[in-house]
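Section 4.2 – Deliverable D4.2 (structural model, holo form)

The reporting period included a commitment to supply a predicted holo structure for the target in complex with 3-methyl-2-oxobutanoic acid. Inputs used:
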Amino acid sequence: MNDRVLIFDTTLRDGEQALPASLTIKEKLQIALALERLGVDIIEAGFPVSSPGDFKSVQEIARQIKNATVCGLSRAMAKDIDACGEALKVAEHFRIHTFIATSDIHVNTKLRKSQDEVLDMAVAAVKHARRYTDDVEFSCEDAGRSNIDYLCRMVESAITAGATTVNIPDTVGYTIPTEFGSIIQTLFNRVPNIDKAIISVHCHNDLGLAVANSLTAVQHGARQIECTINGLGERAGNCSLEEVAMILQTRQGLLGFETGIISSEISRTSKLVSQLCNMPVQANKAIVGANAFSHSSGIHQDGVLKGQNTYEIMTPESVGINKNNLNLTSRSGRHVIKHRMQELGYKVEDYDLESLYTNFLQLADKKGQVFDYDLEALVFFDQQKHQQAHYALEYLHANSGKNIIPSATVKIQIGNEQKTATAIGNGPVDAAYNAIIEATGIHGLDIVDFKLDSKGEGADALAQVSVVVEYNGRRFNGIGLATDIVESGVKALIYVLNNTHMADQIDQHKQQQKIVGI
Ligand code: KIV
Ligand code: ZN
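Output (structure tokens):
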């Protein structure tokens, strides 16, 4: 019998806190639903006390997720724990995660308290959290650099106080596998009540060892791994979910562990997170990089043609990458699209076939052949459109060239109204942006990042623009995709405007609640 290892995903908390711009509630919900479909056991949805937006998104995720346990983070403070309890109480299953630092460096320099004071705070926090739920996780921040005697004492006290999971983070990614394995082993040898809790690990990747450290910890008794999609997270990131899950699956014969991860969902979840978070995945990244299953050298290609296992230790299909042998063109019918979507892992209820087919035909007319990436992108943008439709681009015309002043005209749907404006700029994208600002009357947008990527292959690739915009002291992400660069840039800005509109609505709602004293 294989031992079950729980997968605790913290993409929406540790991952999100390290993004250049925060995600909207709808984007977080989209990721949470994808994580649930991927089969993660626990979704850490956010840090409710940190902002009204975070509180609301944790609450919304708690409301909609049915199978996974939804978790919120709190410092070892009653007000943080109360915010978690309040945001999570609507969930089917929820966990409160509370933490305090245990290393001398953190206790003396950051907290400026004695070890005993910190221990008392931890115990009080766990007891306070237990008033809301029986599922309480306690983390010893910077455990990797903590004094082992104090760490043992802290773990024992947290379990006695009622923690059902105790997490041992390598917060700064400092330890090496033998060392981290020995910390976990020592806890199992010395903490008398350790069998009353699940031991979890949370490793950062500063030295590139997060996955190796997590795996070693499991071999020494840990049964929960905290990780993120694409390894997102503070600084160099956290343990990568897809890597650790595929190690446990691919080497199950040797290791003897299993997880609840449905590996065929990995590729799609990775792409969704990368898109929404505006964090591209490096091409040679294990499991989810564009080159992870492609063979370049002639010798390798020859080997794979003779037998896939000559150079592949797992199949692309096992992580949800399906090879396409149908050419999708404007002559392809709806049933072909539906069939291909099914091969890509989409159920019919995941997308609107009519809308996808209409967009597919438009794209096929422009590009000739439509690839898997294009189909997935069309579904992605269709979902965004349905979810955030306050602003929509109805018409765009841009003029540029040598020795002419770039200009653009846009027609924008704003709620029930349409507005048209023309402007000039230092290039066609700038002119279109000026026209949008004129049409919408929204001022104070500061474009802090503008990135252009090609998606797909060769001359058939689509242009993807990602922008980061500062507005009212907050940063918003936007992405746009089109065959035309200017259109893609404009779509990215419209995406941002919809996000700012939603944020304004949340702020107004909060303000009204304050006025009526809720
Ligand atoms: O890295 C860390 O120690 C954390 C804790 C809050 C679990 O993220
Ligand atoms: Zn962390």
